[in-house]
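Trying the structure run again after the queue cleared.
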Amino acid sequence: MSTNIDTEVKSTKGTGAPRIIISMNGVITNDPCALCGARTNPNGIDLMLADEPALVCRDCGLAHARPLAMLLGLADAAYGFANAHEDAF
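Done. Tokens:
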């Protein structure tokens, strides 16, 4: 089960490029990327195709929706920091 966070959708109307979103994925999995077939990072906050429930790897995210992929990198860093300093919160 996944819940979309509609943070931003890469506007690609008429270009043939995939529309990519950031999504909270309730199923932690490293399914293959819908675009290239590489394994995805199973962390629960994922890049996905906007039109279907299919994961997108970071490399394809950087190629097709760079701002979203960079935002996801910041989220990963914040999550890691919070886990490392859990007793301080």
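The radius of gyration is 13 Å. Worth checking whether this holds up in the mutant runs.
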